[in-house]
Design goal:
Order of helices and strands of chain B: EEEEEEEHEHHHH
Shape of chain A: extended
Oligomer: heterodimer
Distance between the termini of chain B: 79 Å
CATH topology of the largest domain in chain B: Immunoglobulin-like
CATH class of the largest domain in chain B: Mainly Beta
Distance between the termini of chain A: 121 Å
Helix content of chain A: 55-70%
Pfam families (chain B): YEATS
Number of helices of chain B: 5
Number of helices of chain A: 21
Protein name (chain B): Protein AF-9 homolog
Strand content of chain A: under 5%
Strand order of the largest sheet of chain A: 2-1-3
Number of domains of chain B: 2
Radius of gyration of chain B: 25 Å
CATH class of one domain in chain A: Mainly Alpha
Strand order of the largest sheet of chain B: 5-2-1-8
GO biological process, one term (chain B): regulation of DNA-templated transcription
Organism (chain B): Glarea lozoyensis (strain ATCC 20868 / MF5171)
Largest sheet of chain B: 4 strands, antiparallel
CATH superfamily of one domain in chain A: Homeodomain-like
Helix content of chain B: 25-40%
Largest sheet of chain A: 3 strands, mixed
Main location (chain B): nucleus
CATH architecture of the largest domain in chain B: Sandwich
Chain lengths: 536, 254
């Protein structure tokens, strides 16, 4: 194109030869220099211009995009967070389209109505401070340290400063109400009753506030009905420990004032600790291996093949290969070598093992032969679960669990009942039926949960008490019957005494002795019977 | 086969998982419950026996398979149900005419390395219980015999403990024990993502889901009332005892 132009300018005849297409290609990607008019650039012909002029770029003039300047006006606004209804003005962009022309008076009125709310009003969030009635206070919220008046004061401050405890603490100036001095003993009162107000720490206030808030919360809604957020909040408030909080602050304070050297020292101590733990770990490993070796069952095999040096060499190579394969395999070694011979030993090792596995996670140094394998065996150390998590996952801890392994709650709950003799079971069932609870050994609980299980246990216990008490009553009844019989006998004898002589008297003595003996034997017979029943 | 138990058990720990098992039976009826083709003439009911989570939550992360041992007269009486979709019940549907005891055996996931456990369920086809209950079943056309149960894992091994106390995502990330096992864990983790792996039961009952905290509380109340009554009776008995003792003393003296 350019050569074409040049020819045109110099009035050279147009060459008939078509320009080679190659040139066109060359033209395409030619760098376009900025700030140079096309005409000037074209002067360079096919060779690009090597000089680049320095261009002073001025601010581009706006041409077509130019809009009329935006209009702003100072508009009044209110802030709904304020109570005083103060109206301020701020600059706002005017709407593009002008308001529809209306009658002047009306337009004015409308504007006045449409006073917008400040955009910051939404940040005025009110903290929800629980409220309590006098009755509730007297029932549940009494406290030795705090009077109702002071609690009220604290709560009013909480409300005023939105629970910002440092601020509340700063502004806390509680003055106990001055008791109205009555005429007579004014002087006395002045001396005795006015106690200087206690100085409260932030923790004191927090503790009081949280305890009151948690109690009120639980009063309004029993914890069992709360959703998890509410429950968490309740837990947190309930578990507030001022002493711990003070200790924490003190600790943070000292940590803050720690010098660089001290921090470094702590770091190095921690490292040292890790190293010691690792060493202990290794030692434990070795010791365990040693134990396993020592307590391995004595072999009764023939040692003849190993008496020669050749045999020994073979043995060594065998052992080496076994060792290698052991390393490759997942370490069954722990279980295998320990289980046959060392019964009590395993149990003593248990707690040690657990710690080992948790330490190994953090220390990557190789130690012992089943280091890596061991850690993969327990991919995660046993985690510490929070109380909430334990509730969610149904984890509970017991001092003693009868047997390990899976079981069903229903069976477990009914076991104490089912292990009783048939007669006893029948008795208990009768009582239950009497109560209108159709439980028996063969029927089931509707919801055999842990709680229900406890309830059932308690019920069973009471029933046993009842049965025992009834048995005792029965026994006494029997004794009363015998005593009555004895008495009747004696009366008869006394009536006969008029006729009879010393002979009768002797008989009477025998009778009484006999009756005593009989009542005693009745008692022992009863206990015998119950014993037998249990055995059955 | 379960892998060799090289894992240590967590001492003193017990974990439970609630579940529901039982049967639902329906009488054949030309309109509401027509007899499928090929059913023997003497069969009068269709029934389903199942094991599932409370509120249909996933239980497959601890329960691997369930076998139902039906009556010997039924063809192929031992039914093995496994690889069910999480959140769906392990169940067997059959038709028949008689009630019998079904032996339900629950097998646990290999991580647990626990032996299977056995439950017994009496298949109910005919309305039972009190008159009101019978009447309700008759009008509903369904005989429901469900039981709530809690699976206790006493001292689970550590791996299983982790599995039972982890939400799903942790599980999938932590599944790196051994090669073969790793893949299984991964799959388990993905499968379990349909539900939460917790031991919680719903707060309130809904139709078709009768087991909840509400029901539990009702049961507790009943238990508490009964206990109060029994305690009252104990006191009464003790009073009687005292009276009797006094009477006896009076008799002995006199």
């Amino acid at each position: 194109m350019t050569s074409h132009d040049v020819r045109d300018m110099l009035d050279l005849p147009q060459e008939g030869t078509p320009r080679p297409t190659k040139k066109q290609k060359l033209n395409g990607p030619r760098p376009v220099l900025k700030g140079l008019a096309r005409e000037v650039q074209n002067l360079g012909g096919d060779n690009p211009i090597a000089i680049v002029p320095e261009v002073t770029v001025f601010k581009k003039r706006r041409f077509a995009t130019r809009k009329p300047a935006a209009k702003w006006d100072a508009r009044p606004f209110k802030n709904s967070a304020r109570q005083d209804g103060l109206i301020l003005r701020h600059w706002r962009r005017k709407d593009d389209k002008p308001a529809a022309p209306t009658v002047d008076g009306e337009g004015e009125e409308k504007k006045v109505e449409e006073i917008e709310d400040s955009t910051f009003a939404k940040y005025n969030v009110q903290v929800n401070i629980p409220d309590y009635t006098d009755e509730e206070y007297n029932l549940r919220l009494q406290n030795q340290e705090w009077t109702k008046h002071e609690t009220d004061y604290l709560f009013s401050l909480c409300r005023e400063y939105d629970l910002r405890f440092p601020v509340i603490w700063d502004r806390y100036e509680y003055e106990p109400p001055i008791p109205q001095p009555s005429e007579g003993d004014a002087a006395e009162n002045a001396g005795a009753l006015i106690v200087p107000p206690k100085t409260r720490t932030v923790e004191d206030m927090k503790a009081r506030y949280y305890s009151v808030a948690a109690t009120v919360m639980a009063l309004r809604k029993p914890p069992i009905k709360m959703n998890s957020a509410e429950f968490n909040l309740h837990e947190v408030m309930l578990n507030f420990n001022p002493a711990q909080e003070t200790a924490r602050k003190k600790f943070a304070e000292t940590a803050f004032h720690r010098t660089k050297d001290e921090a470094a020292e702590e770091q190095s101590l921690l490292l040292e600790l890790k190293r010691i733990m690792a060493r202990a770990d290794k030692l434990g490993e070795e010791r365990r291996e040693l134990y396993a070796r020592l307590e391995a069952p004595p072999s009764n095999g023939n040692i003849a093949p190993y008496t020669t040096s050749q045999g020994l060499a073979q043995l060594v190579s065998q052992l080496a290969s076994a060792d290698r394969s052991k390393k490759h395999r997942k370490s069954l070694m722990g279980g295998e070598t320990m289980s046959p011979a060392t019964g009590p030993n395993t149990s003593t090792q248990q707690p040690y093992d657990r710690r080992e596995s948790s330490v190994r996670e953090s220390i990557s140094g190789p130690s012992g032969l089943n280091n890596k394998k061991g850690s993969s065996q327990n991919p995660t150390e046993r985690r510490q679960l929070t109380e909430e998590e334990e509730r969610i996952y149904g984890v509970s801890r017991h001092d003693r669990i009868g047997t390990s392994g899976p079981a069903f709650r229903q069976e477990k709950i009914l076991k104490p009942l089912q292990s009783k003799s048939a007669v006893q079971q029948q008795k208990i069932t009768n009582v239950l039926n009497e109560l209108g609870i159709p439980y028996s050994a063969s029927t089931r609980l509707i919801m055999p949960t842990a709680e229900v299980g406890e309830g059932f246990d308690a019920l069973l216990h009471s029933i046993n008490n009842l049965l025992d008490a009834r048995k005792l009553v029965d026994k006494l009844q029997g004794e009363i019957a015998t005593a009555k019989a004895v008495r009747a006998e004696r009366e008869r004898v006394e009536r006969e005494r008029g006729e009879g002589g010393a002979e009768v008297k002797r008989e009477e003595g025998v009778g009484i002795a006999e009756s005593r003996k009989r009542s005693a034997s009745v008692m022992s017979a009863a206990s015998d019977r119950s014993g037998k029943r249990l055995k059955k | 086969m379960a892998p060799p138990n090289t894992n240590k058990r967590c001492k003193g720990v017990q974990i439970f998982r609630p579940f529901v098992f039982g049967s639902t039976a329906r009488l054949f009826d030309p309109v509401t419950n027509p007899k499928p083709a090929g059913t023997p003439d003497d069969h009068t009911h269709s029934w389903t026996v199942f094991v599932k989570g409370v509120d249909d939550v996933d239980i497959t992360y601890w329960c691997k398979k369930v076998t139902f041992k039906l009556h010997d007269s039924i063809p192929n009486p031992t039914r093995i149900i496994e690889n069910v979709q999480p959140g769906t019940p392990f169940q067997v549907s059959e038709t028949g005419w008689g009630e019998f005891e079904i032996v339900i055996k629950i097998y646990y996931v290999p991580e647990a390395s626990e032996k299977p456990q056995t439950l017994y369920h009496h298949l109910r086809l005919h309305p039972y219980g009190t008159d009101a209950e019978k009447e309700e079943m008759r009008t509903k056309g369904e005989v429901i015999s469900w039981s709530y149960e809690e699976q206790l894992f006493n001292e689970p091994n550590e791996q299983f403990f982790d599995l039972l106390t982890s939400p799903v995502d942790r599980k999938a990330a932590g599944g790196k024990g051994g090669k073969g096992k790793g893949t299984k864990l991964m799959r388990g983790g993905m499968v379990g993502s349909t539900g939460e792996r917790t031991a919680l039961i719903p707060v309130g009952s809904r139709p078709g889901q009768p087991y909840s905290r509400e029901t539990e509380k009702k049961e507790m109340r009943r238990m508490g009332e009964a206990k109060a009554k029994v305690d009252e009776m104990v006191k009464e008995a003790q009073r009687q005892y005292m009276d009797a003792e006094r009477e006896l003393a009076a008799l002995r003296q006199g």
